[in-house]
Amino acid sequence: MKTILTVVGLGLGLASGMAAADAQSLAVADDPMVFKKVDADHDGYVNREEAQSIVGLEQGFDIADANKDGQLYPAEFAVALPRTGSE
After folding, report:
1. Number of domains present in the structure of the chain
2. Per the domain annotation, does 61 fall within a domain?
3. Alpha carbon distance 83, 54 (integer Å)
4. What is the 3-state secondary structure (H, E, C) of 8-43?
5. What are the beta bridge partners of residue 71?
6. 72 φ/ψ angles, rounded to the nearest 5 degrees
7. What is the Cα–Cα distance from 10 to 7, expressed in whole angstroms?
8. pTM, whole model, 2 decimals?
């Protein structure tokens, strides 16, 4: 069973507006523990299959994958996460 992580808590956007949701997304992106949890096989990058564990991450995957190698390294991962909160 996959653990589905959500970037923005339920109701955060409704209660505090989009600015708070974006701030939450950025905080998650800066947390190295989130990357380590999503990188299930601990190979140092998040692949497309692993990206499916975060709702919406797959939609920003190609944009964040700067070198187009099909893998998100920590810096690319941090770019992808804020996109998930705003789509």
Report:
1. 1
2. yes
3. 12
4. CCCCHHHHHHHHHHHHHHHHHHCCHHHHHHHCCCCC
5. 47
6. -105, 115
7. 9
8. 0.62
Per-position pLDDT tens, the chain of length 87: 444 444 433 333 333 333 333 444 444 556 788 899 999 999 999 999 999 998 888 888 999 999 999 999 999 998 887 554 444
Q: What CATH number is attached to the domain comprising 72? A: 1.10.238.10
Q: Which residue range is the domain that position 51 belongs to?
A: 32-85
Q: How far apart are CA 43 and CA 54, in angstroms?
A: 18
Tokens of 56: 């919406």
Q: What's the full length of the chain, in residues?
A: 87
